[in-house]
Write a structure and sequence with these properties.
The protein is 49% helix and 14% strand. The chain is an alpha+beta fold. A hairpin with an 8-residue loop joins strand 3 (140-148) and strand 4. Helix 3 (48-59) crosses helix 6 (82-106) and helix 4 crosses helix 7 (168-181).
Amino acid sequence: MSLVVLVATWQTACAEAELLSAQDLVQHSTNEMLVLVEQAQAYVDEDPERFYIAVEALLAPVVDFPRFARSVMAVQFKTATIAQRERFTELFKWTLVRTYALTLARFKDGDVVMIPAERPPRNANQERVKMEIRMANGSVYPVVYSLGRESDADPWRVRNIIVIGINMGITYRNQFKSAMQNPQYDGDLDQVIESWAGVVTGEEDESEKTDEAPGDVREDTEPTVTNS
């Protein structure tokens, strides 16, 4: 995929994301991702970075990476410098891109079915969107997206994802907290940030199952942090 095509894809995705409801945003971006996953089969083994760059271009206007990263840093966000916050957000973004891309790649042959909301959201600027990926063998995999916006004049953005009961936000947050307490890093925030990819890889088998039923998202999964 050329740079020109990537830029055009990103611009189109941005324009479309500005106009969509929370559910339409999730459905559209998921369909686009599954198409990309299918197209990438021809080159991903030889050039995986090309695939991840294309995925990032699709997710950039859809996922609120800074807000997602802030919730992962939790209390450390309050004392982190602006440079540390920005650096972690960039590293975290690529971790999430890779994880999400590889997860959807497992379900590339499935059908995406959006699940209607059971009740209106309690907060007009927070919404949960549920979908199922249904495979030909009868298996059903629930995915739930937690979206937010600053006001009704702002676009929706994804702030957390639960896949088959695995709460990605909580999992990453626990990994970050564990790394800060690990003697290997001696409580050094810079070391934890720069080692983030290794932290995730080293603990990928210790993902935390959410206490919620599969496919449910708590609206308080993001810690309260103050801007500075």
